[in-house]
Amino acid sequence: MDAKTNIALELIDLEPELEDFRQAVVEGLSSSPQKTLPCKFFYDATGSALFDEICDLDEYYPTRTEINILRDCVSELGTLIGDNRLLVEYGSGSSVKIRILLDQLPLAAYMPIDISREHLQQSAQRIAEDYPELAVLPVCADYSQLTDLPVYQKNPGLRKVGFFPGSSIGNFTPEEAQHFLQNVARQLQPGDGFIVGVDLKKDPEILHAAYNDAKGVTAAFNLNLLSRINQELDAEIDPTAFNHEAAYNDSHGRVEMHLVSKTDQQIRLGDDQFELATDESIHTENSHKYDVDEFQQLADAAGLKPVKVWTDENHWFSIHYLER
Ligand SMILES: C[S@@+](CC[C@H](N)C(=O)[O-])C[C@H]1O[C@@H](n2cnc3c(N)ncnc32)[C@H](O)[C@@H]1O
Q1: Does any ligand 1 atom lie closer than 6 A to the CB of residue 112?
Q2: Strand, helix or coil at 76?
Q3: Are 171 and 286 in contact (CB under 8 A)?
Q4: Three-state DSSP class for 275?
Q5: CB under 8 Å to 133, separation ≥6 — which residues?
Q6: Of 84, 86, 131, which is closest to residue 113 (Cα–Cα)?
């Protein structure tokens, strides 16, 4: 056996209970006039794998654009961050982007936080194998509910830097984003940094293509939420009775994803029944887009001071370095 495969990682498991998932689904399907489902539940093992496929799509510009910006700014980031830090990544997924930082910067420890347990474990394992000097501390948790970060017992005083790529901040409404950033600020010490990737406002046609890819991977990702509910919550929902819909909502500055009922139908979840009329939708995700100034004001108001921002030449995506 390869010596690299021997590293045993201990997962800190704060995963939301199945009951929380059921309650969120019942609440979302009961809400009127707009039914909703929280996007954090997209990510079971299938959803995480589908998201990785989305990242490789031609139409999905955010991933490659953010990676290119990161490559260009990594040495400046290194100077801002300082040496010997614990890097906390919120929503680490496949832990791909972090490798750009790990390859160049002398980080001491890495705490990937993700709600998708199996995917997190596999990604963290690969990082531990590829970076044997790095302490890897995976945490399965809902970052929107996490008030305190778990303590790194071997070095509780290690200074931190936060990392939140992928424009996942856009899944929050601006009010929720502000609340999340205030929480992050509390998890950091004065002087600690926070690196956040934020998708920028742009031509709605580019956005439309990114969320309505020709291969239908984003549609499969959206519809998988219904399959997950069937599998985990004793539900009877026919995913083929729904269409994927994603459109830019100009007044809110966000792409909204919906699942639209093709017919009048009843869906069952345990003992609960929900009625959907033809064309009625379930709102499953928001992806808010920001101007650079707009985001900086939001961060500043949350107690994270904008220090530096990098964008690509098209001004499609931005990476912000904020300081507590
Ligand atoms: C849009 S993907 C981004 C993945 C990766 N950071 C990137 O930039 O490519 C969102 C990731 O965050 C995780 N996630 C979504 N909502 C979460 C939550 N509330 N708490 C923890 N993880 C969450 C998902 O499982 C997924 O891995």
Answers
A1: no
A2: helix
A3: yes
A4: strand
A5: none
A6: 86
Q: Which of 94, 115, 118 to mutate to test the pocket of ligand 1 (most atoms within 8 A of CB)?
A: 115
> Using CA positions, which residue lies closest to atom 11 of ligand 1?
91
Residue type, 272: D
Considering only CA atoms, which of 95, 18, 112 is closest in space to residue 52?
Answer: 95
3-state SS string for 182-246: HHHHHHCCCCCEEEEEEEECCCHHHHHHHHCCCCCHHHHHHHHHHHHHHHHCCEECCHHHEEEEE
Is residue 322 helix, strand or coil?
Answer: strand
**Domains detected in the chain:** 15-57+203-288 (no CATH), 62-202+290-323 (3.40.50.150)
Protein residue with its CA nearest to atom 9 in ligand 1: 166
Q: Which of 13, 20, 39, 40 to probe ligand 1 with, by most ligand atoms within 8 A of CB?
A: 40
- Burial degree of 271 (CB within 10 A; 0-12, 13-18, 19+): exposed
> Atom 10, ligand 1: which residue's CA is nearest?
91
Q: How far is CA 126 from CA 43, 111, 129, 134, in A?
A: 19, 14, 5, 12
C-alpha of residue 163 to centroid of ligand 1, in Å: 12
In the predicted model, residues of the chain with pLDDT beneath 70 are: 1-7
Per-residue model confidence as pLDDT tens digits over 244-271: 999 999 999 999 999 999 999 999 999 9
The 10s digit of each residue's pLDDT in 131-148 is: 999 999 999 999 999 999
Q: Residue 39 in contact with residue 176, Cβ under 8 Å?
A: no
Q: What pLDDT is attached to residue 15?
A: 84
